Fold these 3 entries.
Entry 1:
Amino acid sequence: MVRRADDSIGPLAVGVGLGVGPLAGVLAGTFGAGVLMAVLLANSGGAWDNAKKIVEDGQYGGKGSRAHEAAVTGDTVGDPFKDTAGPAINPLIKVMNLVSVLVAPAIVVLSVGSGANAGIRFGIALLALAIVVVAVVVSKRRDLAIAGDASPAAERVAS
């Protein structure tokens, strides 16, 4: 699994930049939405897989029917849902919570104190935001490079 930078930098930026309360809100939202999304993806993927099996057993026209074509399309979408996307959300939640627990003492120390801590907090938050922006830009460039590399290869195979 490829880890993204905002899995661990996001909680750091929110905690240092905004404080402990907003960090708790981000974690609660991540946990709630992440668990619901993982359950949705796993269940819908399993449902599409089971629908294809039912059609292949002879119901709704069986193999070769339009229902079978639709079920195969649904299963093509459902397999990544139940096998990869749903289970991949669990490590994201764990990493965000772990990073938050590890940086919580530093956030509390920086939140309480002199005005000099405000400058440090602002600098750390800007650095974390810059890391996230750079990670997104690099990720998008890789996607474009991969898409650009695939086209000449496909043209060579076709000719």
Note: The chain has a mean pLDDT of 79.
Entry 2:
Amino acid sequence: MSKADIGLIGLAVMGENLVMNMAGKGFSVCVYNRTTGRITDFLGGRARGANITGAYTPDELADNLKTPRIIMLMVKAGKPVDDYIEDLIPRLSPGDIIIDGGNSHFTDTIRRTKYVESKGLLYIGTGVSGGEEGALKGPSIMPGGSPAAWPHVAPILQAIAAKVDGDIPCCDWVGNDGAGHFVKMVHNGIEYGDMQLICEAYFLMKEYLEMSADDMHVVFSEWNTGILDSYLIEITRDILAFKDEDGSPLVEKILDTAGQKGTGKWTSVAALDEGIPLTLIGEAVFARCLSALKKERVRAAGVLEGPGPSGKFTGDKKAFIEDIRQALFASKVVSYAQGFALMRAAAETYAWDLNYGGVALLWRGGCIIRSVFLSNIKEAFDRDPGLENLMLDPFFCGAIAKTQDGWRRVCAAALSGGVAIPALTSALTYYDGYRTARLPANLLQAQRDYFGAHTYERLDSPRGETFHTNWTGQGGTTPSTSYNA
């Protein structure tokens, strides 16, 4: 029996679909699953007739692979990945490659890369985005880890990835150790933000404008033909048109409590560690947390006073829908600006040489946040690879200038009408803060120095020179240590 090009461990939905994708692109695949019955079922079912073989032990898997052996793990993040690494190491030879294709935390991938390399092997931690359909038809793939592994795995990963602009694969080398999983984490954080922004647009139309699901379906259909054209707008359009068995909109029968798997939280924590104001994604994470407090919210709705959204709008509905579109677009710019700022900060911290235009290209197809919008981001970084903030690019600067009046009208109306839109409003606050040359942090520094002798800098002195004032006349002159986030 001829040996396989690649082995894959983990035959859940994503693993199965990736295997079918690989086989469909002409690669031979050997599969293993801890529950061996799944191997038999898979080989006798959808894999029948494909160039796919099964291995019922790790030894059999290793024996059935070409050298250097390439084994991809599609298992639950955390301890299962470490367990499989330990299980595979004694069965592999120097130069063999282990790929983790799950949603692992980037710090784990940094650790694992160093550990696996110490054993003479190579390691890749790669983000894979696109869900079940993407895995089968072409996902976005974001590999990082041991650079020496990339030439061996590139032909497979780039072949199975989504393609844009003709035949450009949405897969390229991201960077050393945890870079790939970090970029995937930021992708997921932006996904949280995009979803929350769309939900707030829906909420405004439903509660404030009292529009039906069918009416909103028409709006999202129109939006999906312009600058907002994206996978998430597309599926929102389809969801709003979907009817339950009784003919009513199914979406209105779904409980309003959202789940999460933690990658949005990881993104927010990483932003705090790097001192980057990732406000919109943070609000998107907290919005899910707030939604989970269903019983408390129901009680609070009968107790806490405030304006109700329904029946309050008396203006031009069509014009306000256009304002919502503008607010959604401008807020998306902020979300991506914050996400790319976080990647830039992390690249400096972890010595990654990230290609930001290349990252935008990776997200153009296959993944959950794929949109025409990303081509504008790629062009922005092509114009200026050292761009500090996406909003400073001429295209996005001009686009926000054209949309911000509608953005402000939406936020003002929502606040007055009692409609909770945390992501849209936090995006506007960030925009206004970022364009403010002098913020009130001077008073904050005075407060910190007053109660804790934390020192401050002066406008009329060089940066880095600190001062402490004895504000009460009763304190000392010894300053406290301090740090800047």
Note: The beta strands are 6-9, 29-32, 52-54, 70-73, 97-100, 122-129, 140-145, 163-164, 168-169, 175-176.
Entry 3:
Amino acid sequence: MKSPTKDSPAHKKIDDLNVIIERIRIKYNPPRELFTIALPVAVALLVVLAAFLMGYTLHTTDKQQVTTSSDKEKLLQEYLAQTSAENGNATGASAPQTPSPPAAPTMGLDEVMVFALLIAIIPYSIDITLQKRATRKKEELYTEFLFKLSELMRGGLDPVKAVKELSKTDLGVLTPHIRIASTSMTFGKSFEESMKAMAQSLHSDLITRYTMLVVQASYSGGAVADLILKASEDMRSIISIEREKEGNLHQYVLIFYFAQAIIIFIIYILTTSLLPFVQQLGTTNMFGKTDIGTIDFARGFFHMIILNSIFGGLIIGKISEGEARFGLKHVVVLVAVGYIASALFILPPPVAQAGPQVNITVVSGDQQEGIAALPLKDSIVFKLTDATGNPMNSTSVAFSIVPEGTVNPVSDTSDQNGLVQTKVVLGTDPGTYIVTATANGASAKATVIAKSGE
């Protein structure tokens, strides 16, 4: 693929865009924090607000009570439903259907807040990490600048002429700053003013301190070149010591990460081994007040992992790099790993989002009679319609039969008319059987009767 030529329309558009960006930067001079803090935080808040408006709720440690029943209770409910179906079909009405429950969010608002937190802090954590690396590179190059400055002054040049000579050399990212300082000296600014302005533009406290030392040395007279050389050596030693200190502290960073992994592993063991036993306690009370069975320990463990990741990451930054804000990159890693581990091993599977509302009715095949253990003559046909009564096609439907027997197929999709059907093989015992069609949480039942073959 050919790159755009200098006179091509694409190249002109790129130039125009660069000009616009440069004009905005010069005219308004927007701070970096606007893009690394304010904008990401605003996006994160919008994500949380949108999730709240979409119906996501904050999951607490109070477990949602879900009523369950045994197989016998379910069978009894099916026979009660069958009785209602017989009464309704006596007048030619279709079997009753269960209304579709409202769709449930796939995650809680607390999980959405985890994603919002990552959105808010990732840009700033990346920015300050890159800035620190760039500052460290500038400081290393500044020691070289001081060394060359002392060598030129040993050769007989005064500080101003020495800086001008150095502006003609290549000192990496320092080169444009040195050239600006040299130009300002050419136009009449003093050595002190030009050097202070250069140090301020480099945004390094270490460079600023040694620049002031160089300025004071230039006024002291005597062996100024030796003083600047000594400053270069001292600055290089400080950088080396700081790098060695950070290297020695890396072991503590690994310890924090290892501790977080152990916490997650312990919680996983508790969730898979202890919690099932605790949940069996049912209505057993703790301290005479709290029902153990109503406590969602998994959700509480998830919150603990996330909070531990946040504060642990900030502590890592404070210990290893001197400021808690440098621990934000560790917060990102720990929170992301903690959330993934929680989603995979600790939190219960998310509830699938329900599909559109479905109404299911029995079209034909209801109230059939057949011989036990043999197939029915006719298939049972159901029809799917939406809330406005229009047929719903390509909708998945599951079939089942109680108390025994088989259906074929056990699942199918509706056709363009909303129709779907299944063939039934009755159970071995004479009696009443219930065939149920379920789609998107809604269901309809058909009643069939098995007679003895004798």
Note: The first strand starts at residue 97 and ends at 98.
